[in-house]
Write a structure and sequence with these properties.
Layout (H helix, E strand, L loop, with lengths): L2 E5 L2 E8 L4 E5 L13 H6 L3 E5 L16 H15 L3 E6 L1 H12 L4 E7 L16 H16 L2 H11 L8 H12 L4 H10 L3 H4 L9 E6 L8 H11 L5 E6 L6 H4 L1 H15 L3
Helix pairs in contact: 2-3, 4-5, 4-7
């Protein structure tokens, strides 16, 4: 059942299932909380209270907000954890991975630990040498075309690259639902503005994280020429011993949707060690 929380600038939609230590799931841009549809039942079965939220601009949350930075998203997530009675383990994917970094640095009393799935957490620079790698070149061009044109077609072409090889069984329905959401007033503009939001605010907070962190990368993620190296750089930018890296072989930018069982397999030991009731 969808619930709503009013915060500065709009209303957040979220859904809570299960009982036990709190785990909050935040998706990437242009998506919704259904991104975790294969993960939520497994976490609930493992004994966790799971809150999956729609980001500002996405899903059933308000479409139009003053801004869409990672700092804004972090503030929303902190407000949701406080409302639900934290502490929580905060799981963020892509842009929400950067937001999780900021939330952990700003509200350590509410965040027990963070998991960052394919996170955009550091400033990125497109290097000519990296563009020689076809997967990176393809993903980058398609993502840039979406940002410039505000086109669902280009967004779905990017998603095709971001889910290399294996697609979810309900892939066509996923694309249909996604197109319907992005067709609602204001939602494509929110996606474009998130795509334009630089991750420097998150990168600046990496050294301030004082909670355990798990970084999960897909080995075939087209958003980086070398996904493992990106994950290693995030770990290195956090205080020594604070973060660990896991790489899911064959996964792209959405390991939790594309390889949910493998993603849960790396999540559960981390949750067992760090989730608090």
């Amino acid at each position: 059942m969808t619930e709503f929380l009013s915060v500065d600038g709009g209303t957040l939609a979220y859904e809570v299932t299960g009982t036990g230590p709190l785990v909050v799931l935040a998706h990437g841009m242009g998506d919704s909380r259904e991104s975790y549809r294969f993960v939520v039942p497994q976490l609930v079965a493992a004994g966790y209270r799971v809150a999956a939220t729609d980001l500002r601009g996405a899903g059933e949350s308000s479409a139009v907000w003053p801004s869409y930075s990672r700092t804004d998203i972090a503030g929303d997530l902190i407000a949701l954890v406080r409302h639900l009675g934290g502490p929580a383990v905060l799981v963020g994917q892509s842009i929400s991975g950067g937001a999780a970094t900021i939330a952990a640095a700003q509200a350590p009393e509410l965040i027990a630990a963070i998991v960052e799935l394919a996170p955009f957490t550091r400033n990125q620079a497109i290097k000519l040498g990296d563009l020689r790698k076809k997967t990176y070149r393809t993903g980058t061009i398609r993502l840039l075309m979406m940002v410039v044109l505000g086109s669902v077609k280009w967004w779905h072409r990017y998603l095709d690259a971001a889910f290399p090889g294996r697609k979810p069984a309900d892939w066509n329905d996923q694309l249909r639902r996604n197109a319907a959401m992005l067709g609602e007033p204001g939602r494509m503009k929110a996606l474009q503005r998130m795509g334009q939001a630089a991750p420097g605010d998150a990168g600046a907070q990496l050294g301030n994280v004082r909670r355990p962190a798990l970084i999960v990368e897909g080995s075939l993620d087209p958003d980086w020429a070398d996904p493992r190296a990106e994950g290693e750089a995030i770990v290195a930018a956090m205080p020594a011993g604070m973060a660990q890296l896991e790489v899911i072989e064959g996964a792209g930018h959405y390991p939790h949707t594309q390889y949910p069982d493998e993603t849960v397999a790396v999540l559960l030991p981390f949750l067992k060690a760090n989730a608090r009731a």
